[in-house]
């Protein structure tokens, strides 16, 4: 049965594509074009003081999130790193991270000369498990990075309780979570700091860029300094107090983000509405199970819509082939990560280069069963721009899955 399938043959074996729609991303209008043009014409493309349009956007984003401060920087990887540095980690400290996330959640820890410690995910949400966090804590643990994967909020009540118990800092990796809410509160505002990415695929984008939000005065001052070559407010231009670097964004990125931010709330609510509807549709399909969404999730931004795939209900068709078939049917989807982070060559080969990671650190025996299962057999992703479609599109996604099931069973 499987040998009868290839991407090119799907139309022959399964008929015309189920989904024949282009889901545009990014969404923009003359407002973005005119804003960037105005900056170009002004001749002031950057601002070493992080003022003008950059500062304007920082104020806007902080207000949107309900935080006191926001600090922009070049990308979401750097935003994690400067948040960790500002939290006071030292060489050799341990930082707990999930294994089911993008690589830079962990490499930002290495770039602080700290040791990433992997704690498994909850198989029902794919977010880091509070129980696994507590099991991973040692006397060297100084921080937790809680990744709101796909825009689904972590169990922040449990994580913050653990952090208080062990005197740990919590950084929310909200690279997927622009506009999402936990108990009515914007993600990124619950821990000590919240880190966001503005990379091309993200729900709020300027092509590249990042930002950290916080309510802590001292964290803000340090992050502000670190992203601007160690300068401090009121200091002399060539006085550098901290080991920062030039991590500033440009005025053009800032105006793009200001315009995109005007669309974010409406887009987030659209994704949330479509995600709930798609949940209801997919719950009716044998072998397909949307991730659990608890009552504390008051707004889900669905940067990635994830469902769990049971191959036994699809003629034992491997997940990777199923995802290829679904994409061939016109659904913007992906098979997800091929393996957990600790299996990346970086960690298996201990290729830490100049970073001060102790020689005793060894990832060869790390095994997180829930993350392994998500990567190898279960997790299928539908991408965020597809959730900006209409209800008929969600119905078409469900029909595409049913079409594959009929084809292979």
From TrEMBL:
SUPFAM superfamilies: PLP-dependent transferases (SSF53383). The active site is at 202 (proton acceptor). One of its GO terms (biological process) is polysaccharide biosynthetic process. Transmembrane segments: none annotated. One of its GO terms (molecular function) is transaminase activity. It holds the Pfam family DegT_DnrJ_EryC1. InterPro entries: DegT/StrS_aminotransferase, PyrdxlP-dep_Trfase, PyrdxlP-dep_Trfase_major, PyrdxlP-dep_Trfase_small. The modification N6-(pyridoxal phosphate)lysine is found at residue 202. Keywords: Aminotransferase, Pyridoxal phosphate, Transferase. Belongs to the DegT/DnrJ/EryC1 family. This is DegT/DnrJ/EryC1/StrS family aminotransferase. It comes from Dyadobacter flavalbus.
């Amino acid at each position: 049965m499987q040998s009868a399938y290839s991407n090119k043959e799907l139309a022959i074996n399964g008929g015309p594509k189920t989904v024949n729609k282009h889901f545009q991303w990014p969404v923009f209008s003359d407002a973005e074009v005119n804003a960037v043009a105005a900056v170009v014409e002004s001749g002031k493309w950057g601002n070493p003081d992080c003022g003008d349009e950059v500062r304007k956007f920082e104020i806007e984003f902080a207000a949107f999130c309900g935080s006191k401060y926001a600090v922009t920087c070049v990308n979401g990887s750097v935003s994690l790193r400067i948040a960790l540095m500002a939290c006071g980690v030292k060489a050799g400290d341990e930082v707990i991270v999930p294994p089911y996330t993008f690589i830079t959640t962990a490499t930002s820890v290495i770039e602080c000369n700290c040791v990433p410690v992997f704690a498994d995910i909850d198989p029902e949400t794919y977010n880091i498990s509070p129980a696994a966090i507590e099991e991973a804590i040692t006397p060297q643990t100084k921080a937790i990075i809680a990744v709101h994967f796909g825009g689904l909020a972590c169990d922040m009540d449990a994580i913050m309780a653990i952090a208080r118990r062990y005197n740990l800092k919590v950084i929310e990796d909200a690279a997927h979570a622009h506009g999402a809410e936990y108990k009515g509160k914007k993600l990124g505002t619950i821990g000590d700091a919240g880190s966001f990415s503005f990379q091309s695929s993200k729900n709020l984008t300027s092509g590249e860029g990042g930002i950290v939000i916080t309510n802590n005065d001292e964290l803000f001052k340090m992050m502000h300094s670190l992203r601007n070559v160690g300068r401090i407010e009121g200091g002399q231009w060539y006085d550098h107090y901290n080991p920062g670097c030039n991590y500033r964004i440009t005025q053009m990125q800032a105006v793009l983000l200001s315009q995109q931010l005007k669309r974010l709330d409406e887009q987030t609510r659209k994704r949330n509405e479509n995600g709930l509807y798609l949940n209801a549709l997919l719950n009716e399909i044998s072998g397909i199970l949307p991730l659990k969404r608890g009552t504390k999730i008051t707004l889900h931004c669905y940067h990635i819509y994830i469902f769990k795939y049971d191959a036994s209900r699809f003629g034992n068709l491997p997940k990777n082939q199923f995802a290829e078939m679904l994409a061939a049917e016109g659904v913007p989807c992906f098979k997800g990560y091929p393996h957990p982070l600790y299996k990346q060559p970086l960690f298996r080969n201990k290729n830490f280069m100049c970073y001060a990671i102790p020689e005793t650190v060894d990832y060869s025996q790390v095994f997180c069963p829930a993350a392994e299962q998500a990567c190898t057999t279960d997790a299928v992703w539908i991408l965020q721009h597809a959730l900006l479609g209409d209800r008929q599109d969600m119905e078409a996604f469900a029909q595409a899955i049913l079409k594959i099931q009929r084809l292979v069973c």
